[in-house]
Amino acid sequence: MLGNCMTNVREKGPLVHNITNYVTVNDVANILLACGASPIMSDEPEDVEDITSICGGLNINIGTLNKRSIEGMFLAGRKANELGHVLLLDPVGAGASALRTDTAVRLMEELRFDVIRGNISEIKTLALGSGTTKGVDADIADAVTEESLDGAVAFAKDFAKKAGCIAAITGAIDLVSDGEQCYVIRNGRPEMGRITGTGCQLSGMMTAFVTANPENKLPAAAAAVCAMGLAGELGYARMQEGDGNSTYRNRIIDAVYHMDAAVLEKGAKYEVR
Amino acid sequence: MLGNCMTNVREKGPLVHNITNYVTVNDVANILLACGASPIMSDEPEDVEDITSICGGLNINIGTLNKRSIEGMFLAGRKANELGHVLLLDPVGAGASALRTDTAVRLMEELRFDVIRGNISEIKTLALGSGTTKGVDADIADAVTEESLDGAVAFAKDFAKKAGCIAAITGAIDLVSDGEQCYVIRNGRPEMGRITGTGCQLSGMMTAFVTANPENKLPAAAAAVCAMGLAGELGYARMQEGDGNSTYRNRIIDAVYHMDAAVLEKGAKYEVR
Amino acid sequence: MLGNCMTNVREKGPLVHNITNYVTVNDVANILLACGASPIMSDEPEDVEDITSICGGLNINIGTLNKRSIEGMFLAGRKANELGHVLLLDPVGAGASALRTDTAVRLMEELRFDVIRGNISEIKTLALGSGTTKGVDADIADAVTEESLDGAVAFAKDFAKKAGCIAAITGAIDLVSDGEQCYVIRNGRPEMGRITGTGCQLSGMMTAFVTANPENKLPAAAAAVCAMGLAGELGYARMQEGDGNSTYRNRIIDAVYHMDAAVLEKGAKYEVR
Description:
The structure is a homotrimer. By secondary structure, chain A is an alpha/beta fold. The first copy, chain A, is built from 11 helices and 9 strands. Chain A has a 9-stranded mixed β-sheet with strand order 2-1-3-4-5-6-7-8-9, with helices on both faces. In chain A, strand 3, helix 4 and strand 4 form a beta-alpha-beta unit. The longest helix of chain A has 21 residues, at 217-237. Chain A starts with a helix and ends with a strand. The interface between A and B is medium-sized, with 31 and 29 residues.
């Protein structure tokens, strides 16, 4: 199933509109091309509705938000909803500033997202801020580990159910839930955290996967997580002496470029709870 | 001749002002440095006239345009015209949104460009929008191939003549025309399309080539196209097992870094019609 | 001492807020991660105060300034001053436009910087514009070489004393002075000038080094300069036939990633005057 999701991306080549931060945008574009999709970037309010109209999915990332791009996020998001396009939110830094938290919560309230993808801290912030939880339980730790896994899975399901979308919570262990099922994914390497933007790249790629698999959004989102983590493993295996995080960044995107359904099926490490 | 154009870039080291998108801007800067030129980026209306005044050429790319940067494009463009600097337009996404089409057409109307460089779809949009054609002929295909070449060459010449500048239409086969002659260029590799920004990089480099060769603008623009395509070929030859589009991006810029007149002369594949 | 400064960065992992240009921002983020620090980027006036509050240092780089980000620089800078955070200015292009010169001078006047880092031309512009010098002496050459070194060291000390901060003047020979002492550093390679953003990367890394070494700001700033230059040497030693400036960029960041106190101590080439 996960392999099929990747094949559909390569065969359909979805066009993905990204309103994303200027830090990692180049890598987002290249990983979208690597997986067989096509990227377009536009954040100007007067431009975004036209651009999103010709795409299949919209990836909203608030990493370097500003007032102009926030307006663009709402306009593009409403248009994407109107057209039934796939819509993903990456609430970068929610919890780190009032503007980021408020913007992410307002986006959740005013738009229908197919997926919200962030780390546990960001998703907890959204759970609290959007009233989808009555306070975040103390037993939801700040990192998803084997020890905290049961509580985290329950939290992911609960958040997904109340937010009405797929929740993708990524970290050492990744969780992808639609409220009923929860994929628990153990691909990836800790060194990926030393590269800027692996999360942003995943959000872009996940938008493409979900767009190309409208009937299977949950496995598609999980497939994107597995593909990113597996690329981290395969890219790391190609590292040579002296290679560091900058070269690792290239090798991860390269690994996505060469990944096919069979490689993904074989390398994906997950269970469904 | 084409080799000389590159030598002049390396010897004169032109300073190029780029008002360009934030997706591929880093690669544009590095390829300008690779070919012997120097980049400066500035898009703030209050800053652009001073910056363009100390440069030799101005590269306007509308890839992630916004209202502020559009104002900067007009201010910088008028100053560049006033000073007789080389001016290039890369109408990224013309045809994909009203704002992009309108901005590109208005830029064409209000400024005198030395070169307009885009893909066939963008240039057809400009031909239609600027009234330089009475409707785009049905026989101008959406890709320049050996089959559609004759019509495309005629279109390139016609567009260049009516727009009063060099038209560089890039794709599987590249066309560079000043209205009289048309370089038909067959360098490059299809895998270049899987890297974000090879077109943006070419526009930056082409601005440098034309700036360094004011008496030979047409061959200079053609030389930049050949150099980019040849770098794609040379870079591809250095790809190792497992390398993908991210590494390919580096190898293309690296190939420009090492390219000299002799390599370009030997590797350029073109005919003049 | 310099090695200890690097160890402190790796052990403390300072969070650095960067208001920087969109040309080189990705490399700035990756080099901060490579040296053991963490980057956050934010330039929206409504966002910057919250973001800088959770960081330890703030790196202000005016490379692609605009009116919005300039407002963000002042707001964030005042907050950083209020909180006693490390504050660094990289006056990219001061002297190249009135807006850049004026902005840099106003930042110097209204904020207390710990470090100002630029090339000799930019620092001379600031010396003149801020009234910290009565005209720049004719004997301060436009490049710091062995021949012009004595005058340049005197200038660096004088600028640092009058500006009330550390001055880091980088070029073929680098100078880092607090007004009393001046580190004269001879690490680095000329080929680094063919990569966009090595200066921006250094400013980011220097902010991390000074933040992690509050009791030893001068040696910490010097250590960052040595680390960057040494990474340029180590990265160059790993270049293979055909590698150019794009690959070199990766290798420099990779070299920082693997650098530790012992490597830095052994490779740093400096004297204190």
